[in-house]
Amino acid sequence: MKYYERITNARQVLGIPEYATLADIKHRYHTLMKSIHPDVSGKDMHVSQEESIRINDSYEIIMQYCEKYRLSFTEDEVNKYRPAEELWFEKFGDDPTC
User: What is the spatial distance between Cα 5 and Cα 8, in angstroms, rounded to a whole number?
Assistant: First the structure.
C-alpha cells in the first residue's frame, strides 16, 4: 500500500478530515478510545480490543506523519493564522468607533 493510501486509511479510521490540527487529531483519538471501551459501548471485550488495536495503529501512522511534517514559519504562512484581534487592530487601529 502506498504511503498516501496508508495515511488516508488511518485518517478515515479516526474520522479526521483532510485538514486538522494536532489538537483535533488527539481529541478525536481520545474520544474514539473512550467510546469503544466495553463499559461505555456495551460491546464484547474481544470486539472492543480489535477496534482499539485498529484505532491505535491508525493513530500511530498519523502521528508519525505529523512528526515528520515540516512546518512553515514564513511570514505569509504565519500570517494566515493571526489572531482576529491583531487583524482588527491592523485594519482599524485603536479607534473604537470603527
Answer: 5
